[in-house]
Write a structure and sequence with these properties.
Number of helices: 8
Structural class: alpha+beta
Strand content: 15-25%
Order of helices and strands: EHHHEEEHEHEEHEEHEEH
Number of strands: 11
Radius of gyration: 17 Å
Distance between the termini: 38 Å
Length: about 230
Amino acid sequence: MAAATPHSVVGLAAAPPHFITIPHRLSSWGNFDHGDCVTAEEAFAKACHNPEIFISDNEVIRWATKHGVLEGAYLHQVMVWMQENGFHQSRHIYDDGQIYSVDWTNPSTLNSAIAEGPVKIGVAATQLQTAWNSTNGKTGWFGLGFNKDTNEDHCVSLCGYGSLNWLAQQLQVTVPAGVDGTKLGYAMFTWDSIGIIDQPSMIAVTEEAWLRTPTTVVKPAKTPEQESVTV
């Protein structure tokens, strides 16, 4: 990440005090059966587009298979490939925009990035999976009190921020008893669900963070006839 262009809030309008994007339709996009979390996150990011774009599981698996990342990938490499030739569906190509690194330890920087588009992060998954299991994988799980873990082995997406109370209201759940709901938290997509993670826990398990601007670039796909034309 050292050589990447960093996302900066300089010159941008201040991020709203709280923000969330909740797509109407979610999927695991193959990540229950395969290690394609990096590509699945790209599909989630497209679902956060307005109007919402739902990429089929088959297209996500096809794309990941074609690029050799069905069972593991580097986040930045996938984003670069997505810039060049993203998902193909419904006579369109859905690419990524310009890539920026994000300082996930700085709330104003991270919140600004999330308000522009979902932030793609690389995390250690062990404690996250325990939190996800607490609701049997249903949206509304809480990730709280995580310990430091640098074993990056999973990719997720941050699609919202605000107080734990506010985020819980958006997901129609209740903050666990004894937890200070006024503290900062983040809405996090993983494994066909959106949960809530407190800021210290997010920092404890995150190793890299990225913003795509714009998140989605929509292009018309070439017809078979156009593909066959040589110049």
